[in-house]
Design a protein that fits this description.
The protein is an alpha+beta fold. The chain folds into four domains: 89 residues, conserved putative lor/sdh protein from methanococcus maripaludis s2 fold, CATH 2.40.420; 98 residues, Elongation Factor Tu (Ef-tu), domain 3 (Beta Barrel), CATH 2.40.30.170; 56 residues, Beta Barrel (OB fold (Dihydrolipoamide Acetyltransferase, E2P)); 75 residues, Helix Hairpins. The protein is 27% helix and 38% strand. The chain is built from four helices and 21 strands. The strands form three sheets. Strands 1, 14, 15, 16, 19, 20 and 21 form a seven-stranded mixed beta sheet that branches. Helix 2 packs antiparallel against helix 3. The longest helix has 36 residues. The chain is elongated and about 140 Å long. It starts with a helix and ends with a strand.
């Protein structure tokens, strides 16, 4: 019995020592609910390396950005209106041509013959009308003396009327033949840049062929077509009512934008995309914009001269919305909900939650919790003026 009590006492003593040792050597679990987790022997967590930026007031544009496509302000497909053999091409494909410039010439000879024939028919019928009138006059005089009958008078007058009708048809035929002859010389209806040629002298050109002889695109001015979200339509229309709305077109690999203005808003919103078609017109004197090109479009509506701006990298999104980490004077961070107005490039306009001059974390958020100490990885980054 005594031996059993002795062994039990020894076992209890060993268990107590083990529990005390475990309590002395254990450390708290790390996690967001325990900011002291992971602290060193001194009891303080090491500072989190971060990049910071400063909140500042800045003039910010009110813009609408979109992707647009360039189209000529006028595109004309040149087709022949008469059939004939092509005798000359008076330009080189790709040339700039002026309005009224001769582009193609067809063989005139058949058409000139048609004009001469129509004119000859007209002269013949003019003579016949004159003769019929003289005949009618004589028959009328004979009828007054009782020599000619009333029926002969009526017949002579009907002959004159019929020949006069033929005379009108002949005059129309002459005019039509002259027009057909003019069609043999094909002129540019507008100024612009010519495209590829698919016909050459000697080819038989058919009237109103589906394939055009050449296409002329007017490049100065030129238009850019793009789509504006339905939600921004009212804003664009309001500024258009106040005056011209400027628009920039940025060509890929060309840092200098082309400047123009909005000249057209469609009358219907596309229900499939929720957008409306808008067109901007550009002078394009230097031909930097080219039909078929895709460009970045920036519609400049207005400028907010005193917007509160922060780098977009500082804005984080959580379950309850947008927030930032504000750096306090003691180099700890404060969780701050913010309301973002709009984003322009790499910067965001803050509607509420921040004040000018405050410092916010722009990189290194993942290791931060409210109250974390920070160490700046680089110098303070300010919003560009």
């Amino acid at each position: 019995m005594t031996a059993c009590r002795t062994r039990a006492a020894v076992a209890l003593t060993c268990t107590g020592i083990a529990v005390a040792f475990a309590a002395c050597t254990s450390t708290p679990a790390s996690g967001p609910d325990n900011p002291g987790a992971g602290r060193g022997r001194g009891g303080a967590a090491p500072p989190v390396p971060v990049t910071v930026g400063e909140v500042a007031h800045k003039a910010m544009p009110l813009e609408v950005r979109a992707i647009g496509s360039v189209e000529p302000s006028l595109s004309v497909a040149i087709r022949a209106q008469v059939t004939g053999v092509l005798t000359s091409v008076n330009f080189t494909e790709g040339d700039d041509v002026s309005e009224g410039q001769v582009l193609f010439t067809l063989d005139h000879r058949p058409l000139e013959s048609a004009v001469k024939q129509a004119e000859a028919n007209l002269q013949r019928d003019i003579a016949q009308v004159a003769n019929a009138r003289e005949q009618a006059k004589r028959i009328g005089e004979l009828a007054q003396r009782g020599i000619a009958t009333r029926e002969q008078v009526d017949t002579s007058r009907a002959t004159v009327a019929a020949l006069e009708g033929t005379l009108g048809a002949d005059e129309a035929a002459v005019e039509n033949a002259r027009v057909q002859l003019e069609y043999a010389t094909i002129k540019a209806p507008t100024a612009g840049r010519t495209g590829a040629l698919i016909v050459h002298p000697g080819n038989l050109i058919r009237a109103n062929d589906m394939t055009p002889l050449v296409v002329i695109n007017q490049l100065t001015p030129i238009r850019v077509v793009f789509a504006v979200p339905e939600a921004q339509l009212a804003t664009v229309k309001r500024y258009m009512a106040e005056g011209d709305v400027p628009v920039d077109a940025v060509v890929p690999n060309d840092p200098k934008p082309a400047a123009g203005r909005i000249t057209f808003i469609d009358n219907t919103v596309d229900q499939t995309t929720g957008t409306i078609k808008v067109k901007g017109t550009f002078l394009n004197i230097d031909h930097r914009l080219w039909p078929g090109q895709y460009v970045n479009v920036v519609v400049k509506l207005a400028t907010d001269p005193n917007a509160l701006v922060v780098e977009t990298l500082a804005i984080q999104t959580g379950p309850e919305g947008s927030y930032v980490y504000v750096v306090k004077p003691d180099q700890t961070v404060e969780f701050r909900p913010v309301q973002v107005g709009r984003v322009v490039g790499t910067e965001s306009i803050v509607a509420s939650g921040l004040t000018a001059g405050e410092t916010v974390v722009t990189d290194g958020h993942l290791r931060l919790v409210p109250g974390s100490r920070i160490a700046r990885k680089e110098n303070l980054t300010k919003v560009s003026p």
